[in-house]
Specification:
This is Lipoprotein. This protein is an alpha+beta fold. It has a domain at 45-102: Nuclear Transport Factor 2, Chain: A, CATH 3.10.450.160. Helices cover 16% and strands 18% of the residues. It has one helix spanning 3-18; strands at 75-80, 83-88, 94-99. A three-stranded antiparallel beta sheet has the order 1-2-3, with no helix packed on it. A hairpin with a 2-residue loop joins strand 1 (75-80) and strand 2. The N and C termini lie far apart (93 Å).
Length: 102
């Protein structure tokens, strides 16, 4: 190898090793929208309640203190916004709606 080629290769190698490689963060593939807790449409008797209200941990345990009647078999009282709603735990159907009294 001649002297000029060797100097040129070393110069190029020096330049490449000194330059930093730009790193670009990966963007999210799909934007997601989370449903707001306050963004539940007005539910009516016969509608299906959202799944989170069919879970046992959503049930109101003190329904009698709130002036509500005993829930029927496989149903539970839950509070959705400003209403007490009786929801069937098997299919999520709303069987009764009572406004919250303050």
């Amino acid at each position: 190898m001649n002297r000029k080629s060797l100097i040129a290769c070393l110069a190029i190698l020096g330049c490449v090793s000194v330059t930093s490689v730009a790193v670009q963060a990966q963007e999210k593939s799909e934007p997601t929208v989370e449903q707001s807790k306050e963004n539940i449409r007005d539910l009516e008797k016969g509608d299906r309640a959202p799944a989170k209200f069919q879970r046992p941990d959503a049930a109101l345990k003190d329904w009698s203190k709130r002036g509500l009647k005993e829930p029927s078999k496989e149903a539970q009282w839950v509070k959705i916004n400003d209403k007490y709603v009786m929801v069937q735990t098997t299919n999520g159907q709303i069987t009764e709606i009572v406004p919250v009294t303050k």
